[in-house]
Amino acid sequence: MKHILLILLAIIPVSITAQNNFKVPPYEKFKLKNGLTVYLMEQHEVPLINVSAVFDAGSINDGAHYGLAGLTADGLLFGTNKYSKAQIEEMTDFVGASINTYASKDNAGLTSSFAVKDQDKLFDIIHQVIMFPAFDAAEFNKHKERTLLDLDQQKESPRSVIGNYFNAFVFKNFPYANPGGGTKSTVQKISAEDARTFYKNNYTTGRGAIAIVGDFKTADMKKRITSMFGTWKTAESRMVKRVAPDLEFDKSRVLLVNKEDARETTFLIGGKGVDYNSNDYVPILVVNTILGGRFTSWLNDALRVNSGLTYGANSRFSRYKYAGTFAISTFTKNSTTVPAVDMALNVLDSLHKSGIDETTLASAKAYVKGDFPPDYESAGALARLLTDMFVFNFDENYINTFQTKVDGLTTAQVKEIIANYFPKDKLQFVMVGKASEIKDKVKKYGEITEKQIKDEGF
Length: 458
Known about the structure:
By secondary structure, the chain is an alpha+beta fold. The chain has 18 helices and 12 strands.
């Protein structure tokens, strides 16, 4: 019952006017003497506190040890100097709180949500998890074995792994090409000591931030956080200089991943996208909503509603700190692979040839504006927004001007966005299916590279 109550409280909207003109609520930002950046935002609508902490410890730092960032993030919850894994789970569950850790390509971190009345207990746990993880070897090894089983199971589901194949195909030698979840051979070699070393090198105050959003007084919370983390001494943060990857391609290519028992072909078609801070992302989002970003999109209408070739088709821009990708995604029966791919390409081509009229653009604008505020209407989402601002180096102006940018978008600007960001040639195709049934048919799309899904890696 406590879980249900907290969930209901957490989704009550905050700071959204009747006109959906969302603005980032006021917050205070400061830096501790050790370099840790802190964001505090008071939200008194419900008696909850939400925490988001981030560090420069994403899988981009894995090197050849694919999966290390993820296992390290998981290992933060396997016990601390003060609490065992079981105690952490029991204490949080008893009060209906949540505490989770994660690693993405660009960063790793912790999120937590709990009632104000339980804040002393939960802040103590968070303090322990962030500053004093024990990386218990027994717990770590049990988790590693489960991870290895998961890696086997993922290969049985093309939709679970096609993104890894696509990233490896498109990003080439840049670290985004590496699978964040690891491979069986790399995960098998990772030890609790490896995770401990990765933690010491990458969870540093100079490249870290923590955001607290909820029902508290800023002055009091500032004292609490300063007391918790102010004396934390970590390794010096490493300033790794990275050059954005070159995602320009001189020809169309096809990566065909053979899954001998596949009855369907799952495919991605795309190429270069935009990085997280692209100034054109808002108009890109509006245009992509029309192409494949909603249920009534052109892609879904063509491939699902009108032809019945699939149960769903979409397009998306995946954004990272240094680069991003664009991809059309769907799946279909082996026998209809070519018709489905051709239809997807025809829809993309029509975006360039026919463009978008005023009525269609107005509909997309309304959809995007209506969909935008819910992304930030909970205290937890606001906490993650603040730490995203730290990781990707943007400020509240992006949020505060979002709907104005949507409203100001014209059909002439849309035409430029389509030409610049929606690739129509030199496309990159990744297909997971039964090669013997589709290889000869799909070679018309480009030079084929073939892999076996049962083989190691991507």
